[in-house]
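Hi everyone, sorry if this is the wrong subforum. Our group has a chain we'd like a structural model of before ordering constructs, and none of us has done structure prediction before. Sequence below.
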Amino acid sequence: MTTPVHRLTVGLALGAFATSAFAHGSGAHGAFTAGFAHPLTGLDHLLAMLAVGMWAGRLARGAAWTVASTFLAAVGVGFALAATGLAIPVAELGVIGSLLVFGLLVAFPEAIGLRAAAPLLAVLAASHGQVHGLAATGTPVSFLAGLLAASAVVIGVGMLLAHLPVLRRPEAARASA
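Answer:
Right subforum, don't worry. Here is the predicted structure as tokens:
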């Protein structure tokens, strides 16, 4: 069983990697493969997706799929806003903040109800989509398709990790509603 200190340590460790969020804007952002590779090679995105999946995996099944689909939809919205020239002014800060917030949600999944967390989840996910949309070149739709496909895979891995005995807790089966 994990202790509050252990959970806080995991949350802070995820937040410690937040500086990698400023790495956006470099590299080839245009092809499906570039989009698919980013969640696997961008540490900020990888950690955020794993944390979202782990948080979702600690919730009841219906809530877990709500979290995952809300995140992916909001990434798409943020990306689309950027592609049309509408910028979220503090998107990079949203990416950084997401690592801390998602880490804390993994550490304390029952601390905030899903209804309260969903808008925050959506805004932070849109920030992720925004920074990638601003950096996209070539065929942004193809990049977005790859980004969303790999993000879904990483979120799924996080959901599976949440069920490992070493990470599982009795209250995890309860949905925050």
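For your construct planning: The helical segments are 4-16, 32-41, 43-57, 61-83, 91-107, 114-135, 140-161. Residues 31-173 form one domain.
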